UniProtKB/TrEMBL annotation:
Protein name listed in UniProt: Maltokinase
Lineage: Bacteria, Bacillati, Actinomycetota, Actinomycetes, Geodermatophilales
Pathway given in the UniProt record: Glycan biosynthesis; glycogen biosynthesis
Catalytically driven reaction(s): D-maltose + ATP = alpha-maltose 1-phosphate + ADP + H(+)
Nucleotide-binding is among the record's keywords: yes
Enzyme class name: transferase
Amino acid sequence: MSALTDLLAEWMPHQRWFPGKGREWSGITEDGFFLDEGTPAVSVHRVRVTYTDGGAETYLVPLSWRGAPDDELAHAYVGAVGDNHAYDGLRDREATVPWLTHLVAASTVGPLHFHPAGVAYIPEGVPGDVISGEQSNTSLIYGETAIMKVFRRLEPGLNPDVEVHDALRATENPHIAPLLGHVEVDEDGGESATVAFLQSFVPNASDGWRLATSSVRDLYAEADLHADEVGGDFAGEAERLGEATASVHRDLARVLPTAEAGAEWYAQLAAQLIARLDAATAIVPELAEHADGLRVLYGAVGDIAEPTTAQRVHGDLHLGQVLRTTTGWIVLDFEGEPARSLAARRELDSPLRDVAGMLRSFDYAARHMLVEQPGDPQLAYRAQEWAERNRTAFCAGYAAASGTDPATSPLLRALEADKAVYECVYEARNRPNWLMIPLTSLARLASS
Ligand SMILES: Nc1ncnc2c1ncn2[C@@H]1O[C@H](COP(=O)(O)OP(=O)(O)O)[C@@H](O)[C@H]1O
Ligand SMILES: O=P(O)(O)O[C@H]1O[C@H](CO)[C@@H](O[C@H]2O[C@H](CO)[C@@H](O)[C@H](O)[C@H]2O)[C@H](O)[C@H]1O
């Protein structure tokens, strides 16, 4: 191993975006090139990690280089190679500037290709700041004008976030933040991978999770009032969110492929739901007690006779993916569920997938405070009431804008259950004390 791979092998497992924690490494290789040779120099590395379990992943690691340690960058320090000191290139503000300079110039730098969308102003010369709450990607805000998401794990193919935003440009849908550009990297002998995605930053917005949970807090604070009587009622917002979701679905179906989905499609879907349940039960054994009920629910999907239209969808719609601005809701992050392969995330699906995702999110917003106070029947009753009220409002808004009431579809319940199964795996891995939220919902969904 080189001095740099030694450093990276030490540093990467401590990074929030690195999901391979706990897996034993069998090797690490990297290839890098300079994005900017000024001061600081900025390099970009493709780092390939192989695991003893046979798996392998490639990560994108931008670094900045300085001739002497800089105390102000201590939080971003990676280590020294000879006399040069390496820093996390996305947390060294000066090192974030060249990304937008190259986008404006539509440059090719080594294997990196910068593609400006050519529709709106890109804030050149401004440094970017990493947003808090980094998860599998790292996002930087540039001057409250643009936000760049850097995809850490490289997968061949166009990222659905770029693909969908690019396609939606022609529709001028008011519920989307415009794409400003994207960056790709060549992959040896294969399809290139998306490295970064630049989008207009939506200022003065509040995310749906924050708004919904403050409404729930207001309700919990009132001993005797019902959801429709409390000041922070969310139902009007939920209804407008339903309308916005339907509007985005309509435009997705206009600009991206659709397919008629009949008996064969339903049969395949039923098989996928069952396979996902089986895989999840191997990871979360608590799912086993709901398996029989869920199999009945999923089996019924295979019997649905009414054909539908499959189309591109959001794939992971929840309250944390929507922003309320002064003029309405904006839907973000069309990447799909991060745990699925890129090909699976680009498959055509029922738009009810997203409706189910948002209904699950109302359930989460209502119940997450119960994690701290389990067994309080009054709060549990109120949580149920809040979730029901907002589910109904969301579906009403969706129905008014699309002409189809999602609440009447036999598929909706099965897709809600499927999302809750996915959430069980997500929570078991990331927030074990929240596992009871999807498990409680599954007990209800599987029992009728
Ligand atoms: N265009 C935007 N304008 C304003 N804030 C944004 C924008 N895009 C993302 N954000 C903020 O960044 C957060 C993370 O963005 P997201 O695309 O969901 O990234 P991730 O895939 O890492 O979850 C969002 O919850 C939102 O608060
Ligand atoms: O990181 P992403 O935003 O792409 O999504 C993942 O993380 C989400 C949590 O941040 C997770 O969402 C689940 O928790 C939310 C509350 O934190 C809740 O509103 C969602 O309904 C629930 O699914 C999402 O599933 C996961 O893919």
